[in-house]
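Notes from the 1:1 (GR / supervisor)

We went over the backlog. Supervisor wanted to see one worked example end to end before approving the batch request, so GR pasted a single chain during the call. The sequence is below; no edits were made to it. Supervisor asked that the structure be written out right there so they could see what the output format looks like.
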Amino acid sequence: MPAPDLTTLPLGELDDTQWEALCDGCAKCCLHKLEDEDSGDIVFTKVRCRYLDEEHCQCSDYANRSRLVPGCVNLRGLDPGSLNWLPSTCAYRLRANDLPLPAWHYLVSGSRETVHEAGISIRGRAVSDEFVHPDGYDEHIIHWVE
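Structure output shown during the call:
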């Protein structure tokens, strides 16, 4: 029996291993975000979680992330329809909306480096929250070209 195609399989049908494999490795979900109190719009900052290994765009202690950072969101437990706060390029958001994965996604390209080569990941473009006071996050708002 052939392996399921993770590029088309609905999110609700993914097992835990497949769910983790769908992550494109951009690490944008590990950036601190701000919500506009009036509009409810979410904006990204270039301030990343201190536990993110920016070079590899992976959590340095993934197994303990929820204990280390109580606000760390487990996407697996969320309703797929509520993922609109994620970047428009996020594989989970794309699949939740039945959209195809982009050419730079490793499941399409065959390489984990294409997300970085395409300029989609945060590699080399973030600062650790260890060095920014939370009241100063608004000074680090960014707008991604997607």
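Supervisor's comment: The chain is about 15% helix and 15% strand.
Batch request approved.
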